[in-house]
Amino acid sequence: MSFVVGLTGGIGSGKSAASAWFESQNISVVDADVIAREVVQQGQPALVQIHQAFGDWVLLENGELNRTALREYIFQFPEARKTLESITHPAIRHSIILQLEQTQSAYALLVSPLLFETNQHQLTQRTLLIDATEALQIERASQRDGQNIEQIKKIIRAQLPRVKKQQLADDIVLNDGHLDHLYQHLQQLHASYLVLAKKNQSNED
Ligand code: ADP
């Protein structure tokens, strides 16, 4: 796959809604969140490394990763987050590259909440930010997950600030209206990505 659009946005901004729309236009989607869960499944080398780095408490009795315990631990100890990420990020990146290589659509979409934070944008030719105010993010994420507001705020604080993402993204869609409004913007961007992907293709030929 030669032309990849990276799609990002904070929690509750509308990434999943946007990526579902691109899929409906037959664009292949690679989801970094899904991959992040896959690389720590039982039998995966990253889980063995996490076990070695943190100890037995990090596994449940059935051998699966104790996500809740690990999440709480890394929120408490920033150094532990770095250790964890030094294990997971390379594994995630490797898997993203493999999955992108297998995509067949006119261009591919890489959806990642931490596109810029983890330098995954380097795997893309263009970046799109789904943008929303913090108030909207909290409202949508709490309605969707039933998570408490403090927890959502914690996640927002762990992500790159909204203004930084606005500075880094090539394209920005402010998702502050109806879903139809979002889809209209995406339609325009999709048309421009098809053109860019074609240009990219003819430059490579
Ligand atoms: P993200 O993947 O960025 O965390 P989602 O796409 O899951 O965010 O959106 C969060 C929630 O808000 C979902 O339940 C989604 O259906 C809803 N949502 C997203 N955009 C809109 C919108 N423009 N209008 C109403 N609801 C929306």
TrEMBL record:
Binding sites annotated in the UniProt record for ATP: G12, S13, G14, K15, S16, A17
Swiss-Prot/TrEMBL GO biological process terms: coenzyme A biosynthetic process
GO MF terms held by the record: ATP binding; dephospho-CoA kinase activity
Keyword Transcription attributed: no
CC terms in the record's Gene Ontology section: cytoplasm
Keywords: ATP-binding, Coenzyme A biosynthesis, Cytoplasm, Kinase, Nucleotide-binding, Transferase
Listed CDD domains: DPCK
A matching Pfam family: CoaE
Taxonomic superkingdom: Bacteria
The reaction(s) this protein catalyses: 3'-dephospho-CoA + ATP = ADP + CoA + H(+)
Main localization of the protein described in the UniProt heading: cytoplasm
Protein function: Catalyzes the phosphorylation of the 3'-hydroxyl group of dephosphocoenzyme A to form coenzyme A.
Family: Belongs to the CoaE family.
Protein name (database record): Dephospho-CoA kinase
Lineage: Bacteria, Pseudomonadati, Pseudomonadota, Gammaproteobacteria, Moraxellales
Gene: coaE
